[in-house]
Amino acid sequence: MARSPEPGVWRGGWLACARTRPSPNFDARPQNACVDLIVLHSISLPPGAYGTGATAALFLNQLDWDAHPYYAQIRGLRVSSHFFITRKGVLWQFVDADQRAWHAGASHWRLRGRCNDDAVGVELEGLEGECFEPAQYATLLCLFDALRTRYPVRYVAGHEHIAPARKNDPGSGFDWELLSRHCAGSGILLAPTVRR
């Protein structure tokens, strides 16, 4: 059983209950960045295969590009996310949340571009359009609560909302209604319910 994040238990920008594997793919946030956005993604490598360890390898620049034909499409990619939630609900952290992870790419939300500057990236192990596991949602909701103890979170968007011409994740299988109920009364605005 996965350990759920406990709100407020931080060591700097590292969540104490997360398993950590520091990625080299990050840099400093701009000086006046206000971390008020959570961006949700889905990822599996190769697509639709779970528990392979390839996502962690990608974030750590250790992916064997020749291990699967799909990897030719992403060869040399240098990306990261702050958090990754496995199908079993295990929470991994790859980048200090006070730093800028490289997860959003060219993006725009809240009348601002460069969403990496002031967002926390959360990857869910999954495939666009497919459903996610109850254990993933349980971990995600606890992670939200923990993030809100440290950052002034006001917005939640999917990669599909901040980069609609390029991305489709987390996709139609993600339960935005569950997240909406969890955030009710918090003042947090979810992308499917607001205009850009």
From TrEMBL:
GO terms for cellular component: cytoplasm. One of its GO terms (biological process) is peptidoglycan turnover. Its EC number is 3.5.1.28. Coiled coil: none annotated. It is an enzyme of class 3 (hydrolase). InterPro entries: Amidase/PGRP_sf, Amidase_domain, NAMLAA_amidase_2. The keyword Zinc applies. It comes from the Bacteria. It catalyses: Hydrolyzes the link between N-acetylmuramoyl residues and L-amino acid residues in certain cell-wall glycopeptides. This is 1,6-anhydro-N-acetylmuramyl-L-alanine amidase AmpD. Belongs to the N-acetylmuramoyl-L-alanine amidase 2 family. Residues 23-171 form the N-acetylmuramoyl-L-alanine amidase domain. NCBIfam families: PRK11789.1. The gene is ampD.
